[in-house]
Amino acid sequence: MNFYKKLAESVQIQYINGKPMVVGQADSLKLIGVGRSAFVFLINNTTKAMKIFFPGLNNIALEEAYIYQIIKDIDFFPNIYGSGLNYIVIDYVEGYTLFECLTLGIPISEKEINEVDFALYLARKKGLNPSDVHLRNIIITPNGSIKVIDVARFRQSQKCPQWEDIKSAFSYFYLKPYFPKKFPAFLLNGIAYLYKKIYKKRLLSFYLRKAQAP
């Protein structure tokens, strides 16, 4: 049996009080994070991470694996080493997300923002439509380089303004000399919540206009 497949099959997920929980896993897996659609494990004694997608979300696992194959030669994204029905195996990326940088007061430079821009440009050249690019899926590594993770929504048909809005906020506010460089997590989460509400209204308005067009 494939090594990665065996590891993936060792992970047992149950919904408890409506939330997915890991109730079993191989000793060689260390749980290091959880997102909207998957748990993330570090494979012990390696520099690889395994994403195990929640039950019923196999389509996202297959989609993300497909996209990582498309961008595998772009250094700004993790390499992919294996995938299956409900998992992918990619580089484990050390460093701080932009969200963590803001909560810890770690400076974010214009160079790093430009690198994210370039990474997304290279993805577009591959025929993709980078979407859902936010503070938690951009990592600054210990050597100062950028890695963009969580690419499952890079083939959405509609245009996503999220990264452009983040970039504008960075230029108009963050770069100003006296603008604070450290924020409590609850404040950033509150801003993200309000942004999603506004974005959904934008999207609804777009589809209504499209439906009413002659």
From TrEMBL:
The keyword Transferase applies. GO terms for molecular function: kinase activity. Keywords: Kinase, Transferase. InterPro entries: Kinase-like_dom_sf. The keyword Transferase applies. This is Protein kinase family protein. It comes from Bacillus norwichensis.
